[in-house]
């Protein structure tokens, strides 16, 4: 059947519309229509193309995964070489870079454009008359590999440019990467398909881009952000890098939302500090900040030395992955008796601090890693997360290594260890007979998010349990200044401060009190749900599993944990004695309906002190709210914790109401 003009026009219109919405969604993170409408348009186009195959074109939005697997990649020569960057490892090196630029140009305060340095792979994409025709890896800088069919599967890469003034030839350059969330998801998928996991997002991105079968690449959550151009024909380019980047954005290309133009050294170092602080809350991994002289004329004047421009530098963050030697493994006992193997390491600097311990999680993890004592291992420390062993370098294995054996008894109280069905966790069966568990329970009770007893640190608690001064949380409130002063290295003043802090902590909230009890798997969000649902401690204690299941976000396992906890006489004794010692909380108002936030959309950004972001999300959802990942005109509230970043700017621009943590907790507690 030959297509009528009407069909041809409709197909053209659908492609334009889909392309427009794609760019709204991926480049600008600002969708205009709901996904369902997008899907409807997409299916309509698919159906028409199935009816009229002769009308299918390579730049149709339906054709992201096109051709069949390749035998090998062919080579592509870069019209303009793809350079690399010189590195600065510290502020001195950055300052001498800036000084050299000033000397060579004779300009004192240089204007720099800056962006985070994405940790992925450089790719160059060629558009002819706005149509994506080719994509290549960096290769050796002069010649790369043709990965066109793989890059076409990346949704953040437009198959067609948009807007006015599209040049006949435009090569766009940028980084292909996998976000932190995409990486986690991908590894989970790899495990459930019985495959091997990727060591980090960069490796995952590299492995995905180098697939000969584009169908596999299409299943990988690759993304791209652009930061430069190659060959350009038929366009008059702006005079500043920052303007070129904005121009690219206007053509539908995704660029860094963190980009900035900076004047002089102080602004540059402030930007570095800001990005370093926000590093962990960015959705992707970065390994530094890239600074580029903003004036293109100046860039040309400065030129290159060996493969790197003199007008740019990568000011790197301290490495998050380093190599060291595993000296020994010790088994630690947690609050709930869970046994965690801890690696003792040859001390190394990682992520800017010296590390000599790392977690090995559990015995299954040790088996998965295949690690032995004496091995050279890679450890990773990202942000405030506990350092962990991520890999063994088997080629460095010495002749004599020791296999790590599963312990059969608790290293502290010698009780038998139990393995929970279906779980990798080993647990000490000693309960509060086990000194380690007792210490952990008291530490948890005293913690900031629980009873918030200031000055009562882990060391001191350990010492007090060791000498038998306290055996359970309630004993803390029997302490006197003179008993405390008898402890080693405890001055009168510190003892007095602790007594005062204990006194102060007695006034708390029902949520914090429940959380402080340390019921297994009852975190802050669950404690809050319990408090608002039942209103009183008595009601919670009396609740059976069935009525606990009515609480939003409480499932059968947690319900059982709660009932079991309150059934133990020793737990009830501790609670009674805490109340006898005048621990008090204000009456809790019961949430009348758990859907009082229905119809509202929240976005959470930055770090909250009382809840993790996940817990905040769960708490909101349990009250009927929707929680979205990005700010748009439809956002009702932005919850801004510490270091909120670009989402806050966007919310301000759009006039979205912003809640700080205090106001947010009020909304939850109502
Ligand atoms: S500019 C001539 N900007 O870092 C300048 N590179 O170590 C060429 N990279 O090969 C690169 N983020 O893969 C530039 N904002 C950014 C970057 C960036 C990551 C990568 C890129 C480059 C490597 C150099």
Write up this protein.
It is a single chain. With 670 residues, the protein is of the alpha+beta class. The protein has 5 domains: 5-63, Helix hairpin bin (Helix Hairpins, Orthogonal Bundle); 75-316, DNA ligase/mRNA capping enzyme (D-amino Acid Aminotransferase, Chain A, domain 1, 2-Layer Sandwich), CATH 3.30.470; 321-396, Nucleic acid-binding proteins (OB fold (Dihydrolipoamide Acetyltransferase, E2P)); 423-585, Orthogonal Bundle (DNA polymerase, domain 1), CATH 1.10.150.20; 592-669, 3-Layer(aba) Sandwich (Rossmann fold), CATH 3.40.50. The chain is 37% helix and 21% strand. The strands form 8 sheets. A 5-stranded mixed beta sheet has the order 2-13-10-3-9. Helix 1 (5-26) runs antiparallel to helix 2 (35-51). The chain is globular. The mean pLDDT is 92.
Brief overview:
By secondary structure, this protein is an alpha+beta fold.
Feature tags:
670 residues; alpha+beta; Helix Hairpins; D-amino Acid Aminotransferase, Chain A, domain 1; OB fold (Dihydrolipoamide Acetyltransferase, E2P); 5 domains; five-stranded mixed β-sheet; five-stranded antiparallel β-sheet; 24 helices; 26 strands; 37% helix; globular; binds 2-(butylsulfanyl)adenosine
